[in-house]
Structure formats: C-alpha cells, structure tokens
Amino acid sequence: MKRCFRSISLLAFLTMALCLCAPPAMAESADSPEEVVKTFTHKFFMLDEDMADYLSREALYNENDVNRVAMYFRLQEQDAARRGLEMDYLKMRPLLIKTRVVEQDEDTAVIELSTVMVRSINPLYRIVGYIFGLIEEHEFDTTVTAVKEDGTWKIGPGGFPLPA
Predict the structure, then answer these.
(1) How far apart are CA 58 and CA 46, in angstroms?
(2) CATH domain 34-155 topology
(3) Which of 42, 112, 123, 125 has the most crowded CB, counting CB atoms within 10 A?
(4) Angstrom distance (rounded) from CA 90 to CA 67
(5) Are 37 and 144 in contact (CB under 8 A)?
(6) What are phi and psi of 16, to 5 degrees?
C-alpha cells in the first residue's frame, strides 16, 4: 500500500510539473514569427536547402522569377571551389540566436535578430580549437521582416544576404 501511494504521488507530481512547464514552451509555437526567424537563421547558415520553405514568395523569387535560394547555393559552391574547399566547410553553426519583436500586427512582424556562430566542423576539432584559442566566433545582427502568407509566418525580403 505504501509503495502504491509513492507511485501515485510521484505520478501526480510529474503531471503537475508538466502542466506548469508546458504553457511557456507552447507560447512560442512553431508558427510564431520569432520561431520562424530562428529556424530560418539556423537553416540559412547551415546551408540547408529547406530554408526555401520559410521564405515568402516575394523573398524567394526575384523580379525575373529566379529562385534566390538556388542562386545562393550556386554562388556558395563557386566560392568554395574558388577557395579550394568543399561546400560543407562554409557551413556556420549558430550557437546563440536571440530575437526581439520590435513591432507586430496581424500580418507582419519586425524582428531584431542577433546570432553568434562558429564554423561547423567536427566537434572534436571544435573542442581542441576552443582549448587552443583557434576558433573564431562570428556575429550576425539584422532586422528581419516576417509576413503572414497563406496563414503561416514566412521571412520577408531583406535581412539576409540572399542574391538579388
């Protein structure tokens, strides 16, 4: 009987803890403009082609209907080849992404973005690099406009260095 009471009280405690922790975690849902900006930032610097899914139509295509993400990847491949590197070396891993909503209405949000990144290399090399002071941190600060398109938040034009 004593063992059953402990199990029930432990289960009740865990349920209450989950109920208390869940609302703040759900406040920044996957469809909030801040979360979209954070996800896009990670995908952009890690050179993930899925970043196109987070861009609005206006940001994705230029005035000649050329896909800016495809053009960006071609330019990155050319840059890597010119430097004698593989494209994977150009990936930057965001370590810290901070966002702040400057203003927001139903269809648009202006968000300040600040991120600190390091070159995305083998984690063992990164640890050795930190120990010997060889790792460079890169900062990126910008203001991003998020727009609601077809009921979901997307990244608007500007804010990220995509080709025109």
Answers:
(1) 22
(2) Nuclear Transport Factor 2; Chain: A, (3.10.450)
(3) 42
(4) 21
(5) yes
(6) -65, -40
- For residues 19 and 115, what is the distance between their CA atoms, to the nearest angstrom? 31
Task: List the domain boundaries for the chain.
Answer: 34-155
Tokens coding 145: 């406009």
Show the DSSP H helices in 28-89 as ranges: 33-45, 57-60, 68-82
In angstroms, the CA 159 to CA 112 distance is: 10
**What is the pTM assigned to this prediction?**
0.76
Confidence of residue 125 (pLDDT cuts 50, 70, 90): confident
CA 11/CA 28 separation, integer angstroms:
27
Q: Which residues contact 72 (CB under 8 A, 6 or more apart)?
A: 162, 163
Tokens of 118: 């390091």
For 74, half-sphere exposure in the C-beta direction (CA atoms, 13 angstrom radius) is 7
Q: How far is CA 14 from the centre of its chain?
A: 31
Contacts of 125 (CB under 8 A, 6+ apart): none
Neighbours of 88 (CB within 10 A): 11
